[in-house]
Fold this sequence. Notes:
Largest sheet: none
Order of helices and strands: HHHHHHHHH
Helix content: over 70%
Mean pLDDT: 77
Distance between the termini: 119 Å
Number of strands: 0
Amino acid sequence: MNRFDTGVQSINTTINNAGSDRPEQNVSPKVHQGALDQDAYIDYRKLHYKNTIPDNRVLVFLTGFCVGMVFFYLTGGQNIGAESLLNSEHLALMQDYEVNRLGLFEYVAGVRLRQFLFCVICALSSVGGLMAYTIMGWCGFEMGLIIFTIVYQHGVKGILLTFSMILPQGIFYCILFLIIFRRYWTGDKKCCHKEVTVKSERNRQRMDRIKTVVLGILMFCAGILCEVYINPEIMRKITLLFN
């Protein structure tokens, strides 16, 4: 019996000695604080670069804008008929013209509806991301070309005239464009595995789709109404500056 007890004690002593030989797992407070500071610095750098580096959409639009500007100078303003685009006679007519609201509404609604369907088809295609940035770059190209053409004709006041052509409906159309191609603007998403049922997840996705569709329709209708009823009055006021 004594020999057995002695053997058990020797085994326990061996185990304890083996455990004591392992390195200490506790990290010193200084090392732990340094790791936290390093993580905080990395998070700060990510947030800093995210706030300072322009968005890809902005870069694509500005690239198209610069290309339009260069194209204008290379062609000497003859590319879209700078001599006839919103010349003095057109501006004088715009100061006193009467708008046929119904006819203008039918025309604008038809044009915007075709453009809307085209964007939806592009968003649903396999090259939706490429088409989104292509459309954005083309819009920047047109904006740069039109602005420099009108400024070439009318000086600095041409900038006001250009913005009066696209506001306020341009704001709603821009939001609508971002909604249509919304899935191409998001970056890497972190999946959070929560204990939710499949039914509740489907209901949430269905509600998100309904909200997106309703918001898109509202932006589309608001843009058309602004283009028909508000924008002509803004342009009429701006053209009075060109007397």
